[in-house]
Write a structure and sequence with these properties.
Elements lengths: L2 H4 L4 H7 L19 H14 L13 H13 L2 H16 L6 E10 L8 E2 L7 E9 L5 E8 L4 H9 L14 E6 L5 H9 L2 E6 L3 H8 L8 H10 L3 H4 L6 H20 L4
Length: 270
Amino acid sequence: MELAETFCIPDELWERIEPLLPDVLTHPEGGRPPMDRRTAMTAIFYILRTGCQWKALPRSLGASSTVYDYFRRWEQAGVFTSLWKQGLCEYDKKKGIDWKWQSVDGCMTKAPLGGEAVGPNPTDRAKSGTKRSLLTDADGIPLALAVEGANRHDKKMLDATLRGIVVERPDPEQIPQNLCLDKGYDYPDIRELAVELGYVPLITARGEEVAAKKASPRYRARRWVVERSHSWFNRFRRILIRWEKLIDRYQAFLHFACAIIVWRATGVFG
């Protein structure tokens, strides 16, 4: 099977993507016809999914320099963020975002080339690394994301994460919202921040939810869903190790991964 077929963007999803793309730039004096935009998006998805370097892109998916130019232009136009936002709106209509139980946690990844928002990883012999802070709903659907250096404490990223929700959040007075956190966030100022933003902070230590589940089979663990979501992200190998030096480029891949996760949950992207 051809690579273009294996990683092809489905028709139903392409119908959502195409209106988000800026117009193709053409030279007034003519020249080569522009690359097919769907093929370019397929090539970018291939990079995201496999983690290969730009110059290692199979020629059947287009010239790497041309695909990178499309990626850079679409990142600057906010295409991947818009696709994520649109997916959340679609998911909310079909299944409903479960705002009642939200979860936040951080995850560190290697960043061997350094760059913006990179720092010494305290769990990896101070090697260069980056940290993503993720907010999800009760089913693990990504709602917000923040990026800092690996040495940045989780609690320092919580404010930016909670304020970075890409769709409109319901009024907490109408829909009560709990914020599930681990003991790394167990500080008075974090509790104050959560309350200020309309959350009920629920902070549990490692093993507490497991013990509660054993004590009561009907007990439903809440905080672990964000850890599962991080594992979904790590299946996109371009994210498993960060190669982008510029934070905007790295965030574009993260937002594209968020979009794919959400659209898969809607059933549009199998």
